[in-house]
Every structure is written in C-alpha cells, then in structure tokens.
C-alpha cells in the first residue's frame, strides 16, 4: 500500500534532473508550419501499392494459426492432435507440451520483473504470461496448439480437427462482483481477485477531509466505463524466416528494436543475427506497442519456433475475431466525492476507481498536472476478471481524461456555473494557480500566454457558446428533440519519452535522404521530418526523402510509442541535419577561398557567401566532387556527408517528461440532440481547439483532431465489447457488431489550432495524436446532461441508458 | 477419366460429352463463333485492362485471387467479413466487396483495382494525396475504388451523395471529412478534362 510519488515537476526541479527551456527558432521557416507540402506516403497508400505486413509473401511460406479457448475459463485435460497432423497440407503442429514451448513465458517474466514492460504489462499480472498455455483465463485466449500448413484454410481446418477435452472452471466478468467475498478466486493461490500492483493503492496530495470542510457544496456521483478497444485496420501478423542462424522478421509493431531485443532474450538469438522489417503499418493506437505482450512477443516466439521446426518461412496470422484480445484500460467503475466553493473553486477531489484486469492511469493524474486543486485522493483497485488483460488504447490517459471531464462538469452543473469559468478558475499545476504557471513560463524563457484562456475563447466563438449555452433540460428544438451543449478541457500532452536516432545523408546529386528504421502508423511523420530537414539544411522539401523500411540500417526513430513522435524525433532529425550541414559547409570551403563556414549559408540548392550572395556554388557542385574516384564508370562516388544524431528527451515514468509543467491546453465543445422518446443521441457539432505549441504540418495536426473526434464519438455512443453473462463469451468479435463511427455518424469537427510555442518538442511543438480521441468520449456525458437535465454517467451512452435516466423504462 | 460418369455439358445445345476435349471439339465444330468453354475451375478475368485466364479453386474469394495469388495489394483485408469496404474493387462498373465474392463466379468479368486507377492517371489519386485522405492508409484503396465508381456514374456528386456512397467504408483513423473534398476536386478536374 505504498504511495505514489506526487508533485513530479517540483520533485524533478529540486533534484535538478531536467531543465528544458523554450526552443527559440534559429532558422527561417520555409516548410515548417506551411500547408500544401505533398505527403510522401500519399501516393503509395492511395494507389494500394503500399505493402503492409499483412501483404508480405515470400517463396515457400507456410501459414500458421493458433488454437483459441472456447471457454471463459477452462483447462485442457487431454488433447489429440493426430487427425490434424495427418491432414494433407499440414506441415507441423506445435503442442503446448512440446519441449520448444512448454512453460515458456512472455518476456518481462523471462528477463526479470524490471526488464521492459514486465510489471507494467497486463499479461504479467496474470498466468497467461505463459505463451502457449494449457489453461485459458478468458474466452479467445491462445491455448493448446499452433498449426503450420500450406495455406491459411488448411491451418484453420487442422485446428478444427484437434480434439480437446476441457475442464470448465468458474469465471467472472464484473470487477465489482469479483470483489465480493463469495466470488470464486480466479488466480491460483490468491486470496482474492484483487490484483497486487507494485505501484500502490493510494495517491494523495494535501488533505481531502480538510478540503471537504472548506467546501460550500459536496458533490457525489458514480461513473462507469464499459470496455472498448483499438479496432485498428490491419490484422496482426508476423513472418519469420531462418537462413542458417540468421533470422529475418516482418512485423506489424510500433517498436521494432525493443521487439527484437525481447525476442533475442526469449529465444537466445544474438541480436546481430536478427533483421527486422517493418513495412507500412495499418493503425496501432497502442495495440502494437507492448513488445512484451502476447500479441507481439508471444506471437513472434511461436512463429520463430515454427519456422525453425519446419525449415520454411512461417507467417502467423490473427483474424479479426482474434484481434479482440484486449480492452481499453478505462474499463472501470468510479466513485467520486468533490468539494467546491460557490464561485467554482474546487477544494478537494476524492475518487475510488475499480479497474478490470489492469490499470495504467488511476484517474487523478490530470488533476495533479493541470489544476490548482490542493487536496486530491485516489484509491485504485485493479481486479482480476475473466477477460483479456486491458491495455493502452489511444491512449492510456483515458481514465485521467474521463475523470477530469466528469468532475469539472458535475461541479459546474451543481453550482449552476458556466463550465468554462470553472475550468479557468482551477487551471494550474500541482496545487498551484496560474500565477505560478506564469512564473514557470518566464523562468524557462517562454512568452507568458494563457493557453487555456486562448483555447476557450477561440472555441466559444466557433460554437457561439455565449448565445447557445443554457441551463440543463431547458431547450427543446423545433424538431421535438432536446438540445445539449457541453465543454471540456485538459492539458495538451505528449509523453516525449524515448530515444531516437537517424542519419541525414546528402547524396552525390545534392538530394537528401533521412535514413532511419521507422514504422509509421498514419500521423504523417516522414513528410514532417522532411520539412524539418529541408528548413535546417536550406534545401527544397522536394529534395528530401525518408528511407524507413530497411531493418539493418542502425538508426531507428521512435514510433508513436511511447506516445511520442515529433517531440523526440523532431530533435533527432534536426540535430542530424545540422551535423550534415556542418560537413557540407566544411567541404564547400574548398570552393570559397579565404572564407570560414560561418561566412556561408545555404538557400535554394546553393551555398553562398552571406556578405556577397552572388558568390555561390550549387550543392551538387560540392557533393559531386566531394569524393573523387577514378574508375571505369565515373569520377566520383558517394559523398561523405552524413550527419547522424540521437536524442533522448526525458524518461517517461521516471522523470515525468522534461521536468517542467505542461503549459499547453486543449478545449473541446460539443452539441447534441436527444430524442426523449427513443433515447437516441445525435452529435450535431464538435469544435476541437488544441494548443499544439507549433504545428509543423497543420494538415496532419487537423487530421489528428477530426480523426480523434470520430473515434471519440464512436467510443462514447456505440463502442462496447459485450460478453454473454451466461457463458463469458465475447459476443461481438467483429466489425458488424462492434460499431465504430462511419462517415455518416457525425459531422466533421471544426478544428482550431492554437500555437503558443510552449510545447516541449522542437520549435515549441507538443503532440496531438492521443489527445482528442481520449478527451472527446467523456464530453458526451455533460452534453447529454445539458440536453435532458439528468446525468447518464455510464459509457457508452446508449438509447436504453438515456431512457432509463429519464425514467421511461 | 475412365470409370467416372460425369458428363461435360455443352452450354449452347446441352449435348453431353464424355471429356472436356470432346466438348471443346464439339463447340468448335457445331457452334462456330461462340466462345470455347473453359476447363473446370478455369475463369477468364480482365484486371485493370489486362486479360487473364486463371485456374481457381471453388472456395477462393475474389480477394484471395487478386491479392494473394495475383499480387495486387490494394484490396485490403480489414474486417474479414464484408463489414468495412477496404477490399472494394470495381466489377463491371459496380463497387463490390472482393472478400464476399467467389472468384469462380466472376468468370468473364472486368475488374478495376486502386492500382489500375492510379496507373491510368485518374485525378482522384492525386487529390487524395493533396487532401490527406489517408493516415495509416490501410483503408484508402477501398475508398479510392468506391469513389471512382461513384464518379463514373455521377460526375458531379453532392456532399450527401458522397457520404451515402462512402457509408460502407470504415476508416479507424477518421479521415472521413477529407474524402468529399478530394472527390469533388477530382470531379471538377475530370469535368475540365472532358470539356476541353
């Protein structure tokens, strides 16, 4: 029952660990921040010529499929694989009791609890850390056997031919039921279903009882969030090929090097014998980001074993139903008690959050990070149930964002205040108000801009808030429906953790390649890196490209995990570009007698003397002659103009980003219409306002905003994984019955970019990819409340729940 | 094959022959000018303007044939059961779900894929790039084929008509708002080209 460290920023500041100041631009922006830069992945994707892991086929390839448990909790008593083995086309069957796999555990458990994501992995909390177990802890878990065959159809047929005698065991689906004294205990040897989590059970700041005494009003409510999941486009697959002792892997993953590292430990293969290719990647949203979990480490291990066993390349594939293996980490029941003064000042927040299977974010952290509320308490209870372990789901901040929205909007509603005023009243950091934030901004060299105020003003104007906002349940529209309008806010986050490396290479003809292994998930990073490199070098963006696919090229940029792209990688490519620029200028000195590198600059493919711009040479003239070589084919070879760099920008989970508060904010507004006869909720307008510090590629930022809104609206209205209470079977393992938003489900969000340049990334930028999709789901709650005057604090908000809240059913 | 009773039926006069070779000879002799029947499992397919004669298994889907056997990567498997539109190809002018069509039933048909649309220089592709209609890009070819077939039928679609046409295409990244913009721009470019 330890306490979590609180006040991380102050702590880090006191220790002097990190001190990242404002990033003052030193260059002219020709491409940074400009619209209309052609995205370099666009044609490949639109034409269908982009190759994803799922598309990769190589000669002689076999197809592998894994057996899945039909029961929510069951043990294999006996398993007969003889019929499967004799099916024509089946090449090999791997059983759970075969020596290659028996008892083999996911890494984290192999490398020790401190290695990688061991303790943090939902899987590590449960016995299904065994890769191919004989006991299943949830319906759909991989158990028993893997089959490799000449075709996917044959492999599937072989799985059907495996005769298993199961012993069914008790299961439990609801986390509050699981805590009852008479509930069956799922984990062997455990005293209860409460999961033991090393991070402790309580988080406290100040004294909540004191805060409640100071309050004019105490507000209590319960909220519930049912499971949803990533539902990304590409179904997981891995292709493994052995040649002698060398292993090649084609993988759909976010962190190729970490995946390679864990596999190397798992299978005892030297790292320099593994080559990993990551082709184009069809979505992730965190799904493909845990190198230690079953769908990556487990899947890869099985494919590698099967490839060794058969002497053939093996592609292991999951289908859509098998992709429903995780839930969002906001699968929770929350109990809230809030104290507030009449003017909207919140004096204390206390919450008890009961999470199913796993918790990542407790729900209280955004109150610590961006409010001045002095007294905070969070009781976190993770509970084991018969469901797949929950995991990060664009993003792990879901509970923090949901709790912030619900608390602030409940307070505003109870006090009859405009919620935008309540937000402004409580903005701050670690119990300090905006004055303290101002001081911090100045200390770090930033302009003192009030990000929240700017976001709120822009959003209010766009949605016409002052005219439209009304007391709850008061506005009936001419079409007979009730109109609702709501607001929420948060800081603008991006984890900035991790390390990246890349090289910038100026080729012989003066064109530029960014060389770094990098799986790309849709945030348009490659074009953005090209924009940065073009501006840093002084060349046209058309002359710069990105080479991300080759697995053996040393350099590796962080993928969107951990929750970070540009704020780490932007620094990497910028540093590398500056180094390449220095080498280029150095080589150019041969052509500018008597000058030093400081006297020169680069613009429009030319190097010129600053004082006398007419004295210039084209970059090509320099590069072509940089490395003269007399041979049969020509007189030059590749120029030695390669700048490489790495960058580390905070270690997430340990150093809390950059050791200074988050200064950028976001604000979102939503209008709904509720049909009180049917309970149907229609989202009619959404305004997203994000202070992203600096938008390097404005179109890409907007893409994350309107795209995140669609995901958020789907999550709040229709997305829910539904289990059969009688059997524990997940009933909607497909995209017909698991419904996310289509083009016709809500209008395009109006997107407003605010740029205060107060982010912690290069040029003052901060991320946007996770923020909107994570914050929007909770916003439907206050919007529906504003429409009907009754809270439906149970997500997703279905027509049935609306009618129940209205007392109609 | 000796001992087997199966007969080969002439599609033009229902005459029964003992072997495929006999049937072929019969058609060439008695039905001059008519198409010569194909052996069992052999189909004719035109893909992006190129004619093919391919041997297929009865259970192969059109998606499996085009994607896995012919190596055209654009019809993507996303949902694996006709829910997402990512495997959409154009067959004889209509958008169809290639994962829900049996290849053997497509004999004699003309198929267009996103690769073909791109190679033909259709303005949709560049306007899709310009308007950032892709994020991860996995579903994008299915949108391209759906949009192209809409424009073939309706050269000047309204926003409502576009939304209706794309209603069956899922995009988890949420690129939806960009598609109407790109499609209308492509329509305009096509109109100019046609009028010139």
Quick synopsis:
The complex is a heterodimer of chains A (809) and B (196). With 809 residues, chain A is of the alpha+beta class. Chain A is built from 20 helices and 29 strands.
Description:
The complex is a heterodimer of chains A (809) and B (196). Chain A is an alpha+beta fold. Chain A has 3 domains: 53-169 and 230-323, Aldehyde Oxidoreductase, domain 3; 327-495 and 657-805, Aldehyde Oxidoreductase, domain 4; 496-648, Aldehyde Oxidoreductase, domain 4 (2-Layer Sandwich), CATH 3.30.365. Helix content of chain A is 26%, strand content 22%. In chain A, α7 (256-267) packs across α8, α10 packs across α11 (419-426) and α15 packs parallel to α16 (566-588). The model of chain A is unreliable at 1-5, 109-120 and 652-656 (pLDDT under 50). Chain B is α+β, with helices and mostly antiparallel strands and 196 residues long. Chain B is 37% helix and 14% strand. In chain B, the strands form 2 sheets. In chain B, strands 4-3-7-5-6 form a 5-stranded mixed beta sheet. In chain B, strands 1-2 form a two-stranded antiparallel sheet. Chain B is elongated. Chain B starts with 7 loop residues before the first strand and ends with a helix. At the A-B interface, α2 and α18 of A face α3, α4 and α5 of B.
> What is the name of the CATH class of the largest domain in chain A?
Alpha Beta
Distance between the termini of chain A: 43 Å
Number of individual domains of chain B? 3
CATH-defined architecture of the largest domain in chain A: 2-Layer Sandwich
CATH topology of the largest domain in chain B: DNA polymerase, domain 1
Structural class of chain A: alpha+beta
Shape, principal axes of CA atoms of chain A: globular
Radius of gyration of chain A: 28 Å
Shape of chain B: elongated
CATH superfamily of the largest domain in chain A: Aldehyde oxidase/xanthine dehydrogenase, molybdopterin binding domain
* N→C terminal distance of chain B: 61 Å
Beta-strand segment tally of chain B = 7
CATH architecture group name of the largest domain in chain B: Orthogonal Bundle
What is the overall number of helices of chain A?
20
Mean pLDDT level of chain A: 91
Strands of chain A, total number: 29
CATH topology of the largest domain in chain A: Aldehyde Oxidoreductase, domain 4
Query: Largest interface, by Cβ-Cβ below 8 angstroms: which chains and how many residues each?
Result: A-B, 56 and 56 residues
- Give the CATH level 1 class of the largest domain in chain B: Mainly Alpha
């Amino acid at each position: 029952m330890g306490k979590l460290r609180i006040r991380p920023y102050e702590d880090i500041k006191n220790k002097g660990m990190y001190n990242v100041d404002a990033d003052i631009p030193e260059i002219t922006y020709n491409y940074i921040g400009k619209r209309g830069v052609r995205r370099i992945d666009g044609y490949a994707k639109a034409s269908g010529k982009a190759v994803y892991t799922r598309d990769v086929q190589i000669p002689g390839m076999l197809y592998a499929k894994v057996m899945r448990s039909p029961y929510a909790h069951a043990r294999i008593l006996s398993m007969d694989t003889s019929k499967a083995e004799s099916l024509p086309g089946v090449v090999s069957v791997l059983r759970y009791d075969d020596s290659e796999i028996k008892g083999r555990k996911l890494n984290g458990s192999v490398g020790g609890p401190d290695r990688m994501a061991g303790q943090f992995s939902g899987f590590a909390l449960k016995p299904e850390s065994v890769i191919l177990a004989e006991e299943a802890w949830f319906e759909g878990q991989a158990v028993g056997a893997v089959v490799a065959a000449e075709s996917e159809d044959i492999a599937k047929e072989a799985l059907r031919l495996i005769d298993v005698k199961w012993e069914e065991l008790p299961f439990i689906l609801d986390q509050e039921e699981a805590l009852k004294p008479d509930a069956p205990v799922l984990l062997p040897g455990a005293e209860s279903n409460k999961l033991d989590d090393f991070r402790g059970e309580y988080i406290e700041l100040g004294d909540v009882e004191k805060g409640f005494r100071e309050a004019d009003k105490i507000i209590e409510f319960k909220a519930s969030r049912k499971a949803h999941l990533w539902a990304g486009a590409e179904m997981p697959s891995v292709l493994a090929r052995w040649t002698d002792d060398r292993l090649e892997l084609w993988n759909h993953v976010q962190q190729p090097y970490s995946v390679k590292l864990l596999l190397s430990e798992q299978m005892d293969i030297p790292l320099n014998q593994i080559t990993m290719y990551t082709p184009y990647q069809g979505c992730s949203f965190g799904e493909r980001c845990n190198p230690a979990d079953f769908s990556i480490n487990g899947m890869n291990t099985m494919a590698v074993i099967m490839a060794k066993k058969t002497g053939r390349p093996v592609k292991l594939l999951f289908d859509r139903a098998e992709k429903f293996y995780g839930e969002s980490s906001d699968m929770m029941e929350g109990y809230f008690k809030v104290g507030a003064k009449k003017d909207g000042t919140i004096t204390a927040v206390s919450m008890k959050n009961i999470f199913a299977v796993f918790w990542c974010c407790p729900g209280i952290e955004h109150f610590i990070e961006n409010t001045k509320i002095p007294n905070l308490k969070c009781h976190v209870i993770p509970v084991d149930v018969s469901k797949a372990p929950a995991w990060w789901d664009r993003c792990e901040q879901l509970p923090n964002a949901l709790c912030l929205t619900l608390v602030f909007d409940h307070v505003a509603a109870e006090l009859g205040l405009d919620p935008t005023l309540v937000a402004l009243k409580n903005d701050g950091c670690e119990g300090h108000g905006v004055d303290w934030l101002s001081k911090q901004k100045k200390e770090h060299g930033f302009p003192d801009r009030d990000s929240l105020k700017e976001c709120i003003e822009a959003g209010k104007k766009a949605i016409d808030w002052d005219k439209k906002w009304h007391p709850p349940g008061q506005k009936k529209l001419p079409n007979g429906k009730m109109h609702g309008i709501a607001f929420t806010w948060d800081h603008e986050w991006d984890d900035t953790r991790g390390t990246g490396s890349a090289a910038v290479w100026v080729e012989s003809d003066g064109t530029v390649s960014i060389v770094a292994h990098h799986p790309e998930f849709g945030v348009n990073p490659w074009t953005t890196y090209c924009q940065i490199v073009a501006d840093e070098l002084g060349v046209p963006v058309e002359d710069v490209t990105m080479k991300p696919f080759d697995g053996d090229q040393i350099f590796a940029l962080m993928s969107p995990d951990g929750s970070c792209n540009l704020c780490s990688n932007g620094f990497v490519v910028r540093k590398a570009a500056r180094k390449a620029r220095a080498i280029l200028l150095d080589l150019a000195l041969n052509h500018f007698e008597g000058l030093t590198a400081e006297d020169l600059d680069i613009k429009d493919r030319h190097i010129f003397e600053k004082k006398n711009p007419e004295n210039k040479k084209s970059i090509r003239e320099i590069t072509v002659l940089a490395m003269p070589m007399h041979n049969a084919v020509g007189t030059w070879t590749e120029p030695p103009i390669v700048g490489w760099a790495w960058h580390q920008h905070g270690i997430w989970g340990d150093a809390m980003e950059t050791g200074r508060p988050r200064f950028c904010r976001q604000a979102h507004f939503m209008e709904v219409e509720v049909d009180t006869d049917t309970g149907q909720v229609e989202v009619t307008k959404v305004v997203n306002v994000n202070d992203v510090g600096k938008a390097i590629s404005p179109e890409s930022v907007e893409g994350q905003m309107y795209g995140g809104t669609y995901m958020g609206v789907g999550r709040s209205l229709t997305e829910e994984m539904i289990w059969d209470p009688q059997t524990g079977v997940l009933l909607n393992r497909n995209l017909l019955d698991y419904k996310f938003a289509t083009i016709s489900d809500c209008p395009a969000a109006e997107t407003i970019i605010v740029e205060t340049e107060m982010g912690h990334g290069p040029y003052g930028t901060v991320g946007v990819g996770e923020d909107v999709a994570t914050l929007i789901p909770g916003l439907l709650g206050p919007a529906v409340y504003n429409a009907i005057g009754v809270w439906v604090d149970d997500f997703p908000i279905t027509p049935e729940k609306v009618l129940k809240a209205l007392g109609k059913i | 094959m000796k001992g087997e009773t199966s007969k080969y039926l002439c599609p033009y006069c229902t005459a029964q022959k003992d072997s495929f070779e006999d049937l072929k000879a019969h058609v060439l002799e008695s039905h001059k000018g008519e198409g010569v029947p194909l052996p069992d499992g052999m189909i004719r397919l035109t893909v992006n303007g190129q004619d093919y004669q391919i041997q297929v298994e009865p259970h192969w889907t059109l998606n499996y044939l085009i994607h896995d056997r012919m190596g055209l990567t654009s019809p993507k498997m996303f949902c694996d059961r006709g829910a997402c539109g990512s495997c959409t190809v154009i067959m004889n002018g209509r958008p169809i779900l290639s994962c829900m069509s049996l290849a053997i039933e497509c004999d004699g048909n003309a198929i267009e894929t996103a690769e073909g649309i791109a190679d033909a220089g259709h303005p949709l592709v560049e306007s899709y790039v310009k308007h950032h209609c892709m994020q991860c890009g996995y579903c994008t070819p299915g949108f391209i084929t759906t949009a192209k077939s809409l424009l073939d039928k309706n050269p000047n679609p309204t926003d409502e008509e576009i939304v209706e046409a794309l209603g069956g295409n899922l995009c988890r990244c949420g690129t939806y708002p960009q598609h109407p913009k790109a499609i209308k721009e492509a329509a305009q470019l096509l109109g100019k080209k046609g009028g010139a």
